[in-house]
């Protein structure tokens, strides 16, 4: 941590504008409100990641505009649009947008709120989770075959935590296929399964053979 | 902290292999530990040594208490036993179909071990991310009173009997615990996996008869899967067939100009569900 | 996104800062972080209005400084310090400070809250409610284990609807135990929980066994 970090605002884009961030935004038709402000109001009440589509529906604006406005907000909170770098930031996780405390301030906040972190997952649960994440949709039997142990109770734990869910049941065999949830993505701090690290390099012969259905590197 | 009476996996000095059951999570874990302990690549030499230790370990299990654990090892133990037999056979005389089958079984075991290890590594990434992220603070605050009050009034239609029925449904265990029977009946055979074998046998080599391509295979499912895999390869113009007379010898020739792993990855996708 | 705003750490004469909220702030001793940023980080996660004294203790700064910083933040969010007028505002309510949606955006937010809270409970919410009714007092973790799904958001909804409430918190584990309210009895048309029809006593006690590796949050 350095000393005080005043923001150099000498190169502000809108030199004279007192409220420049609003300037380029036409007041929004539906709400007759500045789009970015309406979005930040929504994000202030949200208690889980908000998908862009939901936000667009709420403000009654085209997805493209909302997407641009969100990008502006991210930059705004990051102090890239001439203002300060906020103590909070806007992150895209688990398929939606959500306000987080900026990492620099995590410690101050942790000391203050004593949130209870959920119990950590056992190694068995983590490995099962990894197999399901990469091979979904997958049955318990198939996970058990890869891990060479019975995974029933671990799968139950993961489902109870909301990290995995039943995706579908095979109509013939009755086997339940599991997949991961958006909550898992949120808890990993990623926005989509594409952000999982490629696993092929870890496997022998890359994509050869049995693991060919794994995410390509 | 729960005292951990036997945290070490082995006692190198005494040379006696011991293992704390709570410290590993199944046969593959144990195998990896054993292999790691040998500090050897997974080679035949390492394997035979590992096999010995593994069997020694099994012998040392308290049958009454460790039955559950032990049963999980049977499949691996059986495979390893086979492999040990293969190791005892004279080298360079791999003409016997059974030998070939043993080698395939070994390859399969290695492949599964490596796959298992890959997921173990991936699990570490998950662990790190989950830990880092659990220290972050998302905004998650109670809805302001005025918005809470403005939510539409609850539309409630459920009678008390319906409510009880719902409770009964919700409280009935949804998954009946089952005993794993995977080792008792034939596992599903992957066409893609069999195709990989075929590609390995055919690619860049002499034409081979189908008979040869399935030599050593005793499981009908694998024979069928190999045949289907051949048809898939044919569909991708990776092989060509020659059959002089009906029901005669089927000769398969590798014919793909360029073939890569991605072709294999997409192969047999029709059979995936 | 605009060009990156370089952070000027070389130091700035505080006097000519004019509009920069950060400028007059010395780096804070305790956290070595800009005071206003640390405060907004705390306020962004705060559920209830935060008394000035608590905030001061959290950031380890004198009350007077914190008070001034809060005043700056209010002005900042109100767009009086050169920035935009935010979709949220900082208000003093009941002896503490909390971030609220700015009144101008109430309508957008209200509409959104309505779409998120339909008049009917979802099947998942009803099932969770039934489990809580019959197993109370019960933790979220135990309900999740019985239903084999994550019930966090559903429990929030039910609590928000006033159908369930926190009964007590386990002093050791910190786990919150939930029970049903009189409102549920009213909805069901019964006078007491004793009037709930008995269900099979043979059912396994869901709280036993498989959820042992879950620590209820």
Automatic annotation (TrEMBL), chains A, C:
<dbReference type="InterPro" id="IPR005234">
    <property type="entry name" value="ScpB_csome_segregation"/>
</dbReference>
<dbReference type="GO" id="GO:0051304">
    <property type="term" value="P:chromosome separation"/>
</dbReference>
<keyword id="KW-0963">Cytoplasm</keyword>
<dbReference type="InterPro" id="IPR036390">
    <property type="entry name" value="WH_DNA-bd_sf"/>
</dbReference>
<protein>
    <submittedName>
        <fullName>SMC-Scp complex subunit ScpB</fullName>
    </submittedName>
</protein>
<keyword id="KW-0131">Cell cycle</keyword>
<keyword id="KW-0159">Chromosome partition</keyword>
<feature type="region of interest" description="Disordered">
    <location>
        <begin position="1"/>
        <end position="20"/>
    </location>
</feature>
<dbReference type="Pfam" id="PF04079">
    <property type="entry name" value="SMC_ScpB"/>
</dbReference>
<keyword id="KW-0132">Cell division</keyword>
<dbReference type="InterPro" id="IPR036388">
    <property type="entry name" value="WH-like_DNA-bd_sf"/>
</dbReference>
<dbReference type="GO" id="GO:0051301">
    <property type="term" value="P:cell division"/>
</dbReference>
């Amino acid at each position: 941590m350095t000393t005080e970090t005043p923001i150099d605002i000498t190169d502000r884009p809108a030199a004279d504008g007192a409220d420049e961030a609003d300037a380029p935004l036409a007041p929004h038709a539906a709400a007759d409100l500045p789009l970015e402000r309406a979005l930040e109001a929504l994000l202030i009440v949200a208690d889980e990641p908000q998908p862009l589509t939901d936000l667009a529906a709420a403000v009654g604006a085209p997805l493209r505009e909302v997407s641009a406005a969100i990008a502006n907000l991210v930059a705004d909170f990051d102090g890239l649009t001439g203002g300060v770098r906020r103590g909070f930031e806007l992150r895209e996780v688990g398929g939606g947008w959500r306000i987080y405390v900026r990492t620099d301030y995590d410690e101050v906040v942790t000391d203050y709120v004593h949130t209870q972190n959920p119990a950590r997952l056992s190694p068995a649960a983590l490995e099962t989770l990894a197999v399901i994440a990469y091979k979904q949709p997958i049955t318990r039997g198939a996970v058990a075959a890869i891990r060479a142990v019975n995974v029933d109770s671990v799968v139950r734990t993961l489902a109870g935590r909301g990290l995995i869910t039943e995706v579908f049941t095979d109509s013939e065999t009755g086997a339940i296929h599991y997949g991961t949830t958006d909550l898992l993505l949120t808890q990993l701090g990623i926005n989509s399964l594409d952000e999982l690290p490629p696993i092929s390099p870890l496997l022998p012969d890359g994509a050869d053979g049995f693991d060919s259905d794994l995410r390509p590197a | 902290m729960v005292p951990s009476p036997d945290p070490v996996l082995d006692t190198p000095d005494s040379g006696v292999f011991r293992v704390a059951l709570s410290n590993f999570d199944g046969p593959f874990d144990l195998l990896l530990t054993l292999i790691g302990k040998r500090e050897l690549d997974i080679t035949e030499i390492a394997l035979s040594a590992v096999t010995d230790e593994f069997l020694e370990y099994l012998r040392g299990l308290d049958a009454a208490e460790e039955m559950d654990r032990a049963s999980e090892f049977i499949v691996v133990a059986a495979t390893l036993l086979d492999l040990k037999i293969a190791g005892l056979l004279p080298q360079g005389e791999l003409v016997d179909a059974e030998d070939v089958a043993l080698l395939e079984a070994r390859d399969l075991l290695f492949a599964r071990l490596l796959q298992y290890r890959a997921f173990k590594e991936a699990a570490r990434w998950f662990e790190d991310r989950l830990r880092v992220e659990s220290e972050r603070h998302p905004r998650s605050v109670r809805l302001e009173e005025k918005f809470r009050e403005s939510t539409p009034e609850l539309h409630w239609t459920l009678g008390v009997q319906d409510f009880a029925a719902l409770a009964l449904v919700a409280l009935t265990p949804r998954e009946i615990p089952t005993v794993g029977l995977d080792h008792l009946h034939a596992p599903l055979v992957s066409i893609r996996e069999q195709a990989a074998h075929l590609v390995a046998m055919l690619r860049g080599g002499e034409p081979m008869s189908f008979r040869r391509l399935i030599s050593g295979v005793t499981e009908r499912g694998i024979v069928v899967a190999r045949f289907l895999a051949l048809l898939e390869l044919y569909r991708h113009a990776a092989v060509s067939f020659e059959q002089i007379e009906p029901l005669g010898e089927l000769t398969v020739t590798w014919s793909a100009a360029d073939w890569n792993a991605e072709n294999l990855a997409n192969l047999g996708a029709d059979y995936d569900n």
